[in-house]
Amino acid sequence: MSVTATLRVVPQGTEVPRPDRIRDAAERLQELGIRVINTGQFSVIIMTDERRFERVLGVRAPARNTLFAQDIQPPERSLQGIVDRVEIAPQVQYLDM
Fold this sequence. Notes:
Order of helices and strands: EHEEHEE
Number of domains: 1
Structural class: alpha+beta
Oligomer: single chain
Low-confidence stretches: none
């Protein structure tokens, strides 16, 4: 099962992470084999398989289509102090009218 999640990037002394900090987080995640889908002002959106998600971020992947948010301390040294929260929203279901 693949997991799509938003990771909050930790700012350094400011309220909003600098663009280079976001870019650094994205590059570190890619080096660990995680696909970066998008970057924003505060976060990086990723997609990866469940095993890699759990190994790299140190948190168990939630059940499919479950709302999930948790502060994290990644066991992966290169991410420590870089990302500190993971959020997963259920996939949107469209209704035929």
